[in-house]
Amino acid sequence: MKTTARFDNAIQKLYTAFHNNHLNPECSKQCAVGNILDNTDSWKNLSDKHGSLQLNYVGLVNQKFDKRFNGYTPMELLQIEAEFLKGCGYSLPLHHKGIRPEYPESKDVLFNGLKAVIEFLCQLDGIRNIMDYSSLFTKQRTVNLVEL
């Protein structure tokens, strides 16, 4: 399967962060986008609220000039982060009174968020969903039964 450089880089960083316990949905340096952007939080200046899909003035200027951050536009970064947070079980945008998972740093919660991000990254780059395992269960197999 042919993938893009930005996809490969993002998947590698997210995979590493997940397995090294450096994935944290409530930290702008260790969330999905923070990890994709090399553990920086400058991306949070693209929007006024964590988890929002609304670009602020800085985000709009960068979007209009087609600025890319590790291959992603400002709007794509906000969408990636929103998918991650929704996958983890948060209501968007993040707010102290909003819905959040009981254990936000549990591996199950983080895996669900990671899965949502990977599915979205595949969609962005027109790649078959690498997280789709349904084909493993849809192929019929012929089994020869031997009578004992």
Give the helices and strands, then pairings.
Elements: H1 5-19, H2 32-36, H3 57-64, H4 74-88, H5 107-124, H6 135-138
How would you describe this structure to a colleague?
The protein has one domain (5-138). It is built from six helices and no strands. Helix content is 44%, strand content 0%. The radius of gyration is 18 Å and the shape is globular. Helix 4 (74-88) runs antiparallel to helix 5 (107-124). It has 148 residues and is an all-alpha fold.
Short description:
This protein has 148 residues and is an all-alpha fold.
Mean pLDDT: 91
Shape call: globular
Element pattern in H and E: HHHHHH
Number of strands: 0
Outline the low-pLDDT stretches. Answer: none
Please state roughly what percent of the residues sit in beta strands, choosing from under 5%, 5-15%, 15-25%, 25-35%, 35-45% or over 45%.
under 5%
Number of helices: 6
How far the N terminus sits from the C terminus, by CA atoms, comes to 44 Å
Radius of gyration from CA coordinates: 18 Å
Q: How many individual domains?
A: 1
Largest sheet, strands/sense/barrel: none
**Portion of residues in helices?**
40-55%
Question: Keyphrases for this structure?
Answer:
148 residues, globular, 6 helices, 44% helix, mainly alpha
